[in-house]
Amino acid sequence: MNSPSPATSPFSGPDIRLPAGAAPVACVDIGGTKVAVVVVDQRGILGRRVEPTAKEGASDALARQVLRMIGESSAAAQIRCEDLAAVGVASCGPFVLNDGQVELAAPNICGGLAGAARGLPNHWTTALLEAPLREVFAQVRVENDGLAALKAERRWGALQGMAHCAYVTWSTGIGVGLCVDGQMLRGKNGNAGHAGHMFVSDNNDALCGCGNIGDVEALVAGNAMPRRFGALGYTDAASILIAAREGETGAVTIVDDICRVMGRALYNLVVTLDLQRISIGGSVFWHHRDYLLPRLQAHISGRLPALTDGFVLVPAGLQDRVGDYAALALVV
Question: What is the mean pLDDT of each run of 10 residues along the chain (332 residues)?
Fold first, then answer.
């Protein structure tokens, strides 16, 4: 089945250019499915490279992939790697600190967390990241991708002027960045916002890559849906959503259940942190946002009005380029 994404006007994002004479920077977006790299100088955003996330080989395979892609992106932009002033990395987590440097304990990358049942082609419990980058670059900043995306949405996107807000990505996994009283929340290891691993259902047959059974990510993430519903003929999240939009009864039932889980997770964030706005992006949501947004909002509006009145759920202002600008927000 094929169905076009909702029509939108072309979006190129904010035109970010460094001041004349400023040293260029590299921006890296690491997700469970893909890695994207760009470099930025006074000409703007250049040399974009995208590849599937490395998940095979030694535990430094991802870091080596990032280093190679930075080199390729720089070459495409005619920038020398040694001239890069800083590298900003927005990455899925959770993070583990080893001698103060970030390693990834990411459920959709590290196969050693949940074991062979998840089918990831490695036995990593962490993936090296920051230490290999610091062997090459003097200035490296690594942040949770939800937090980095929140920073970008507050600076350039749909959360400008918001002091009590969150960014949520609904993609391969579920990521969140949180802001209360104008302060973005980081936590002891930079892991604040991992709401995808909270429990909102009694379902006990959905295995998350972190090892939990029945958490939000295990139930509704982009890579969870084909595992849960593949036997019904749905090969990926898009096939379920397309079928639901076309009125297929079974798919509509599945999407209603998925939206109930995700809607409850969003409601929990709103009432726990007294939020005024959440912007939501990510590949699962973005391509079907007109269908999903009102269904999610319905699980928030009208419940406990003292906390939910005035709250608004909105699509990401940076649209499907949030990841690029998330890393950029760390170094520009």
Answer: 40 84 97 95 96 98 98 98 97 96 96 92 98 97 97 98 98 96 96 93 84 94 94 96 97 97 97 98 96 97 95 96 92 90
Cβ atoms of residues 181 and 275 within 8 Å? no
By DSSP bridging, strand 277-281 and strand 165-170 are parallel
Residues with Cβ within 8 Å of residue 22, at least 6 apart in sequence: 41, 42, 85
Contact 240, 175 (CB under 8 A): no
**CA dihedral of 164, 172, 13, 15, whole degrees rounded to 10:** 90
Q: In what order do the strands lie in the sheet with 25-30?
A: 44-52, 34-41, 25-30, 86-91, 140-144
Helical segments of 222-275, H only: 224-229, 237-245, 249-273
* Prediction pTM value: 0.92
